[in-house]
Write a structure and sequence with these properties.
With 283 residues, this protein is of the alpha/beta class. It has helices at residues 17-28, 44-47, 64-78, 101-129, 150-170, 205-218, 226-238, 250-269, 271-276; strands spanning 8-11, 32-37, 54-58, 83-86, 92-93, 132-137, 175-182, 195-196, 245-248. The strands form two sheets. The chain has a seven-stranded parallel beta sheet, with helices on both faces. It has a two-stranded parallel ribbon with strand order 5-8. The mean pLDDT is 94.
Length: 283
């Protein structure tokens, strides 16, 4: 396969974790990639030895100018973007009551609005070609809310709902959309990247407070392997009929499936009331 015929990946948030491992594996396969981070120096090593097939670019997804510039650089260099991986983002933990407005808004800017803007920037060319695959790295928290993760879960729930609409719009045009929903993995999410507002309200000690403590204590010992997660993401793009959702990690799979079954049972248990809120058929 000649370099010009290999798929072109554009991956955000490549300085650590999923983004770094994914970029490394994509380039090891001989494919082309645009690897990005807020500080381009932190991803320069990924390009070493692959200079003919890789670009390392500075990208803060909350900066519209940088989004436009990096997408232009990608298309000027490689001609197209086949796979967009919206991986950039971070965690913020607090009880809902003690959440700090500036931190909440910054979380939404990065995890939600930056992802939206990044996707809008690549869609015109994908739509023109009637091909492409968008991978949105959300979280188990995009499907299940946990104590201390209300605002983080809100960002990921937002991306999940938006991805449903996106898939409905671009699916008929040949563009795939998949949300990747990791549980606990040995990335920097629970370490350096995590922002926390300590809970000082005694009423939340056994809920939000306990989870804030547990998250920090378990960092670095999580069961999830970022390399295997990256391999799974690559496999998604080779599937001619990729799923809309994929939960990564055994803990996450159990948490999501248990919650969805319980939710469905709860909704079905209220079926009579639900149906009776329509106008009578004779009305």
């Amino acid at each position: 396969m000649s370099p010009s015929s290999t798929p072109v990946w554009f991956i955000t948030g490549c300085s650590t974790g999923f983004g770094r491992e994914l970029a490394r594996l994509v380039l090891e396969r001989g494919w082309r990639a645009v690897v990005t981070a807020r500080d381009a120096d932190r991803v320069a090593d990924l390009v070493t030895g692959h200079e003919d097939r890789a670009l390392a670019l500075a990208l803060d997804v909350t900066d519209a100018g940088q989004i436009a510039a990096t997408v232009k650089a990608a298309t000027d260099t490689f001609g197209r973007i086949d796979v967009l991986v919206n991986n950039a983002g971070y965690g913020y933990q607090s009880s809902v009551e003690e959440g700090e407005d500036d931190k909440i808004r910054a979380q939404f800017d990065a995890n939600v609005f930056g992802l939206f803007a990044m996707t809008r920037a690549v869609l015109p060319a994908m739509r023109a070609r009637h091909s492409g695959h968008i991978l949105n790295v959300t979280s188990v928290a995009g499907l299940v809310g946990f104590p201390a993760s209300g605002y983080y879960a809100a960002t990921k729930h937002a991306v999940e709902g938006w991805s449903d609409s996106l898939a409905a719009e671009v699916g008929p045009l040949g563009i795939h959309v998949t949300c990747v929903e990791p549980g606990p993995f040995r990335t920097d999410w629970a370490g350096r990247s995590l922002i926390q507002t300590p809970s000082r309200i005694a009423d939340y000690a056994e809920t939000a407070g306990a989870r804030l403590k547990a998250t920090a204590e378990k960092s670095g010992t999580q069961a999830g392997d970022p390399v295997r997660a990256a391999q799974a993401m690559i496999a998604l793009t080779e599937n001619p009929a990729p799923p809309r959702h994929i939960v990564l990690g055994a803990w996450g799979f159990t948490a999501v499936t248990d919650r969805l079954r319980a939710r469905l049972a709860e909704i079905e248990g209220q079926e009579r009331i639900s149906r009776e809120t329509d106008f009578p058929e004779s009305a």
